[in-house]
Amino acid sequence: MTRGVTRRPLIGLVIPAAVAVLFIAVPLIGLLVHVDWSNLPSELVSTDVLTALRLSLECSAIAVVIALVIGVPLAYLLARTSLPGRRVLRGLVTLPLVLPPVVGGIALQTALGTTTPIGTVLHHFGIVLPFSTAGAAIAEAFVGFPFLVITVEAGLRQRDDHFEEVAATLGARPWRRFWRVTLPLAAPSIAAGAALCWARALGEFGATITFAGSYPGTTETLPIAAYSSFEGSGQIGEAITLSLLLLAISILVLVVLRDRWLGALR
Amino acid sequence: MTLHARVRTQLGSLHLDCDLSVESNVTVAVLGPNGAGKTTLLRIVAGLTPLDEGRVEVDGTVFEDTATHTWLTPEARRVGFVFQDHGLFPHLSVLDNVAFGLRARGVDRKTAEARANEWLERVDLSRYAASRPTALSGGQSQRAALARVLVTNPQALLLDEPLAAVDASGRLELRRALRQHLSTFTGVRLIVTHDPLEAASIAERVVVLEDGRVTQEGSFREVSSRPRSTWIAQMAGLNLLRGSVSTGTMLLEEGTSLTVATNVQGPALATIQPRAVALYRKAPEGSPRNVLRCRVAGVDPEGDRWRIRLEGALPLIAEVTPAAAADLRLAEGGEVFAVVKATEIDVYQM
Q1: How far is B100 from chain A (nearest CA, A)?
Q2: Which residue of B has its CA nearest to A181?
Q3: Could you give the maximum distance between any two Cα atoms of chain B, in Å?
Q4: B87, A166: Cβ pair inside 8 Å?
Q5: Same domain, B295 and B338
Q6: Does B220 reach chain A within 8 Å, measured CB to CB?
Q7: Which residues contact B239 (CB under 8 A, 6 or more apart)?
Q8: Contact by Cβ (8 Å): B145, B83
Q9: Nearest residue in A to B79, CA atom
Q10: Chain A neighbours among B 276-315 (CB < 8 Å)?
Q11: Neighbours of B349 (CB within 10 A)
């Protein structure tokens, strides 16, 4: 690739490319420069940070579970059946990817709010979603689960149904084929999809704050806490600590998925 | 046990239209060129490809009958299908692969594993029980796939190009092993192959399938010595002629007449061994021989015999020694006389 006519890069392209690298690197460096490294350990274990972290992990974990339970079956149907309206369905699923998260939060509010029909029924059973931890988890799931569906569907499409056919000739019924053949073979893409979904849920801000608000200990997840401390109390130090925490988690996800993403480009 | 299949189905550009009967006392090979519908035939028997019209029955069990809308799911048919790529599950150990069919049919884990182990021993793969299929060579994975279906004791065994995924060096040994395992299996045995050598060495009966239709059946000897299609004649390395015989003269489709020694009358086929075609620079005189003026279309050196492709009066393949080829100064485009004795032409009814 780096031989022949492309050996000497066009100088005119190198300059904007360098700007692009700086564009990503400079803000991150700025963040790292402003970290108060000496106070960092004590700030990391402060109650506020720990509360937000625990809540974030809780909500994002629930979001991933929701996404897995409903997302994997949907991915399977999209990949393996000739469901009518499949293309429309796929478009619908990908919509939360491009939809401004605030709109998602408002949509959830109008569908599941306490005064709506569904909200009323849920309230009857003692369940109130808006401005609750469960609501935050649902907002995160709404925004994150398309990542899972798309990744798993692509994974299922990568293989045709050859091994399912083999299993059928060996006497395996449809459910056995699904559990013993389809799912295990799709495991790598399910794991990758879940990680993506989790990362997205963890960083979720707009839909969560709109649907669930920002109550410390109930719905104030890491990103919301970072924003509140930055905007409200002017404690930029705590905001930086929280940001650093989120950055570390993002890098972790990237490292875990590096073979899957970067490997494809190599 | 027997298998009866009457099959009419359209699949893309392939129109499969054939009747097939397989008795369990012989191994039957469906032999044909790529794209003839061989794999489709197996998939129909296994229930993986639906029929447009027809009926499949194994040992009295109707698998499919379009007239009565009968259709058994693949899992309900007791058919052992060894796929061309062997289809071993990559996420399971070799032992779990072999035990899969038994587990799927409700055998408890302990019994299934014990029986799978027995079979791994029979195919000499015990030491790979805990390995993933990727650790197996082509021949070993073939044996594992065979063990995986035989352990379930199917009514019919279907093998799709059993030696295709095995490198040439392992084929001889594997062919022997395959024959041995096939001989101990008492159900219907149907293999599909494009390789005449494989058909000859494994099967007792050959069904030639070309372009979705059966063109010939019989023992490999019968089929290869009296071919009824150009493809099978080529496979057997023979020149095949079509024409009509009347009192010692065969008028060929190409318009040429040949003197033949036969009692056959009317539409007929004839074969000529390439080595029975003698080549001369000048037309020889006298003797009851057929002399054909030809042009050399190609020379294919093959060891100590060179195959000379001729065109002109009749497309023919001749086989000569390299020395003879040199003496004749054979070169593409050169003119040559092909001589065939009447007694070297094997004529049989069309």
Answers
A1: 7
A2: B89
A3: 82
A4: yes
A5: yes
A6: no
A7: B233, B271, B272, B273, B274, B277, B316, B317
A8: yes
A9: A169
A10: none
A11: 12
Over residues B105-144, the pLDDT tens digits come to: 999 999 999 999 999 999 999 999 999 999 998 889 999 9
Identify the helix (H) or strand (E) that includes residue B144. Answer: helix B138-150
Q: Do B220 and B101 belong together in one domain?
A: yes
Quote the minimal CA–CA distance from B159 to chain A in Å. 13
Q: State the Cα torsion B324-B330-B335-B336 to the nearest 10°.
A: 20
Nearest to A171 among B48, B85, B152 (CB): B152
Please name the residue that has the structure tokens 């600590």: A241
Q: In this structure, are residues B120 and B150 in contact, taking their beta carbons and an 8 Å threshold?
A: no
User: HSE-up of B6 (CA within 13 Å, CB side)?
Assistant: 7
Asked whether residue B275 falls in the same domain as residue B180, the answer is no
Q: Would you say the ipTM is above 0.90?
A: no
Of A163, A168, A184, the CB nearest to B75: A168
CB count in 10 Å sphere of residue B143: 25
Boundary-marking domain end, from B176, B205, B230 = B230
**Would you tell me which CATH number, out of the four given (1.10.3720.10, 1.25.40.10, 3.20.20.210, 3.10.20.70), belongs to the domain A59-219?**
1.10.3720.10
Of residues A159 and A148, which shows the higher confidence score?
Answer: A148
Characterize the bridge pairing of strands B266-272 and B278-280. unpaired
Q: Is it the case that residue B186 has pLDDT exceeding 60?
A: yes
Contact A168 B73 (CB under 8 A): yes
Amino acid at B314: L
Cβ contact A170–B149 (<8 Å): yes
DSSP per-residue string spanning A42-64: HHHTSHHHHHHHHHHHHHHHHHH
Predicted pLDDT at A6: 65
pLDDT over 80 at B94, yes or no? yes
Chain A contact for B274, CB < 8 A? no
B305 in the same domain as B206: no
Owning domain of residue B290: 237-349
Quick check: B152 contacting A, CB < 8 Å?
yes
Measured between beta carbons, which residues in chain B are less than 8 angstroms from residue A180?
100
pTM of the model: 0.81
| Total tally of structural domains belonging to chain B | 2
